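FORM 7B: Structural annotation worksheet

SECTION A. Query
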Amino acid sequence: MEEEKNKKLEEIQESLNNIYKVLRPTRWQLLVQGLWRAVGYFIGLLFAIAIVGWILNIMGFIPFMSDFSNKMQEVLSIAKNK
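SECTION B. Predicted structure
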């Protein structure tokens, strides 16, 4: 009876080890996942900064941004008319 339990436990342990080997990510997979996360964080940060800057520009807290945006609109309108 005890031998049967030990044998079944060994089989379960072996099965779990095989599952772990299949599911365990490699170092390259971890590297790629980390790079994608870093790119995602960077893009999210850029969006957050752009949105906060836009809101502050609308409220008038950043006066140099409104000058810059007016100049960019002039450049775009000149380029559009050509």
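SECTION C. Observations
The longest helix spans residues 27-59. Residues 2-81 form one domain.

SECTION D. Sign-off
Analyst initials: ____
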